[in-house]
Amino acid sequence: MPRPIILDCDPGTDDALALFLALASPELDVLAVTVAGGNVGLDRTLANALALVALTGSSVPVFAGADRPILGAFKSETRVHGDDGLGGVVLPPGGDPAPGVAADTIRAILRAAPEPVTLVGIAPITNFALALMTEPHLIDNVSEIVLMSGAWGEGNATPAAEFNALSDPEALAVLLASGARIVFATLELTAQALATPAHLAAWRASGTGRCLTAACDIQGSVPLSRRLGGTGAPLHDPCAVAWLLRPDLFTTRPAAVSMDLGPGPGRGRTVIDRWGRTGVPPHALVLETLDSAGFFGLMQERLNRLP
Length: 307
Ligand code: BDR
Ligand code: CA
Description:
Layout: E1 3-9, H1 13-23, E2 28-35, H2 42-56, E3 62-64, H3 78-81, H4 102-112, E4 117-121, H5 126-134, E5 142-148, H6 163-167, H7 169-176, E6 182-185, H8 187-190, E7 194-195, H9 197-205, H10 210-220, E8 233-234, H11 236-245, E9 250-259, E10 270-273, E11 284-290, H12 292-303
Parallel strand pairs: 1-2, 1-4, 2-3, 4-5, 5-6, 6-11
Antiparallel strand pairs: 7-8, 9-10, 9-11
Helix pairs in contact: 1-2, 1-10, 1-11, 4-5, 5-7, 9-10
The structure holds beta-D-ribofuranose and calcium ion.
């Protein structure tokens, strides 16, 4: 039986490839795609999610969610994703968003779910937090929460913080207090999913589908990461989806995680206790290593399943 998931995203170049990976994978039953403002504003992330879903031919409903964090101001990341969120790659417009807002939809799905649902968050996870803050008992219907979020070391948005965690640290704190097991694909993990021009050339040579081509065009627009040596750009968000498909590609470590919610330069930092120094029992699972060749092979194989 496919595993039911809700995918919360902010496309976003790497979100686009994560969406493709999820929708190409028969192991997953994507019940809803929920969208937040993040890499670019909600108007664009929503339009992008609708266009990407339509390109795959999927009829999964797409819901608009939060356009800003619980506290603080919205800040985009156009340096990586371009002003339109997809690096200037123009796709045919998608359909209309489903009626209703993301947090209501997440609660409705969890209330009615015959089996626990996995929440996959690859954006500032305001939508999940709003849903769980208003009906916390629904956590009993969550099997686990898988996030691309955080770092145990240096951040990418600030020296201390990763972009998704910084974009709504209070939301992440809500999830950490929810009692669910949270799986973290951090920056250290996603650095091992470094898409080089050679990877993209191999993908392009492997097929001619419109989604494969769009994936290569979108990822090809991303500037090579200075932080990671200038040889490629990390496929952050697909790592969270890949964990659900091929956990054998990863090594993991249980850890307690807390948030820096202060106003200073550490704000948004995920404090990850990898060595048990705090004495707090581990309630998260940190993905530590990735079989990079296996990951890129999985991506290539799944992208070729799409039209
Ligand atoms: C995360 O931030 C966004 O820019 C990406 O889409 C990814 O979800 C990486 O820090
Ligand atoms: Ca994202």
